[in-house]
Design the sequence.
């Protein structure tokens, strides 16, 4: 590992110079939290909408000049700043069980402690709770808790689950009808503005441009060496497009800049940049399933890059949009495209659909293995992961690995155990290579269906 004094993902004391994309993202996020604080302090008047990342209607909210707040982003940001444990403790003291999703408890604890956001600035109360229900039942229970706290309207956009792995016309129409009949009127009411379809189209066109560049960045990992880490680095790359910035000029500019930086790394034959500098040798190419741990994010990442393991594709970087499978927001069909986006997001896909996606990644990114990080909090991700792994091993022949952590509850991150498991897993890949058999024969057993491909 070569230390790179010119870049440090932490922004710590030794960070001399950051890449332009990182500075742009930092400025965008700071500006957003400044605006939220200004609303909270009564210095700015803008409608505030609390909503979730998967299936978010960001362009529609922005077309009404609303400021979105994403509770799960606040939770993970709090964890990265080592604030989540206190918030979780606060929620548990108020009766929330240890088994509840820790994003929820972190958010509830933060709210009860004064609703000071991860940047240390106050968050405003919502004018609207907009729940896009995409696959996870916890989303609904979470907003029921918020509804008890805030005196504001609630809209639930019910997105039918892709139980059969397809989106039918009636599912699509059902979502469009709700956007027209419930979401837009609610946004008109809280904003005092009429729905402006031309404004929405302009936002959607910018989304599509940024999505093209994001896909270019994610697919750069098909190169050897991969110029990016598509999991640990990937969570930084998806930040703007999965949250408050999709549809903005800032997001278009950010992704154009990021893609140019990544293209330059490909041209120079460079691997990813890590918090400790340039990764010098790519020894293992992995696909990762499941969300990362946020309380020990750097320590977790280091376990990979110190071993020369780079993540070339991940499911987590698709929770806010599966753009690499071809979806783009379409300005010519504004409400239809919002419906398609909600219906297609990762948490709304059934297990066979998730397996197909991961199998495609293993093949197209020439991965040596699939590693699952099963987080205690999230049933939406964790249910079925062992079965998925077994099917993936059978179909692709690459070995699967399994580790367990949590999202934002540090009590469930055992560094020594996780490191031990990762090292053993990489040794298994080595063992297969030495035996001249990096991919084991495909097994006939296929528990989810479709058979070996
Ligand atoms: S259970 Fe998983 S998908 Fe649902 S809210 Fe928690 S982290 Fe999000």
Sequence:
């Amino acid at each position: 590992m070569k230390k790179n004094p010119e870049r440090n993902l932490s922004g710590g004391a030794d960070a001399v110079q950051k890449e332009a994309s990182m500075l742009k993202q930092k400025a965008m996020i700071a500006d957003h939290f400044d605006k939220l604080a200004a609303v909270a302090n009564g210095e700015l008047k803008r409608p505030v909408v609390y909503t979730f990342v998967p299936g978010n209607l960001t362009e529609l909210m922005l077309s009404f000049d609303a400021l979105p707040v994403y509770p799960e982003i606040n939770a993970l940001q709090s964890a990265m700043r080592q604030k989540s444990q206190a918030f979780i403790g606060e929620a548990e003291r108020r009766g929330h069980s240890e088994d509840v999703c820790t994003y929820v408890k972190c958010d509830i604890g933060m709210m009860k402690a004064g609703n000071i956001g991860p940047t240390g600035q106050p968050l405003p109360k919502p004018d609207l709770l907009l729940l896009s229900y995409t696959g996870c039942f916890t989303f609904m229970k979470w907003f029921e808790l918020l509804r008890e706290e805030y005196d504001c309207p609630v809209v639930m956009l019910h997105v039918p689950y892709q139980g059969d792995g397809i989106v039918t016309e009636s599912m699509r129409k059902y979502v469009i009808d709700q956007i027209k009949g419930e979401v837009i009127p609610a946004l008109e009411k809280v904003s005092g503005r009429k729905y402006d379809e031309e404004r929405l189209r302009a936002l959607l066109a910018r989304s599509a441009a940024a999505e093209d560049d994001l896909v270019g960045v994610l697919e750069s990992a098909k190169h050897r060496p991969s110029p990016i880490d598509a999991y640990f680095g990937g969570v930084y790359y998806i930040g703007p497009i999965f949250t408050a910035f999709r549809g903005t000029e800032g997001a278009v500019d950010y992704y154009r800049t990021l893609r140019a930086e990544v293209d330059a790394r490909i041209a120079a034959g460079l691997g990813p940049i890590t918090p400790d500098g340039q990764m010098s040798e790519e020894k293992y190419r992995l696909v990762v399933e499941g969300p990362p741990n946020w309380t020990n994010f750097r320590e977790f990442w280091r376990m990979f890059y110190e071993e020369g393991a780079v993540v070339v594709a991940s499911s987590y970087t698709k929770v806010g949009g599966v753009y690499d499978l071809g979806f783009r927001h379409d300005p010519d069909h504004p409400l239809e495209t919002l419906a398609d986006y909600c219906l297609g997001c990762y948490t709304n896909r059934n297990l066979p659909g998730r397996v197909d996606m991961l199998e495609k990644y293993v093949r197209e990114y020439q991965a040596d293995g699939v590693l699952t990080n099963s987080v205690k909090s999230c049933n939406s991700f964790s249910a079925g992961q062992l079965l998925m792994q077994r099917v993936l091993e059978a179909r692709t022949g690459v070995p699967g690995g399994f580790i367990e952590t949590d999202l934002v509850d540090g009590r469930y991150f055992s560094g020594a155990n996780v490191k031990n498991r990762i090292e053993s897993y990489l040794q298994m890949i080595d063992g297969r290579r030495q035996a001249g058999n990096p991919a084991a024969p495909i097994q006939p057993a296929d528990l989810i269906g479709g058979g070996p491909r």
Remarks:
- The chain is about 45% helix and 10% strand.
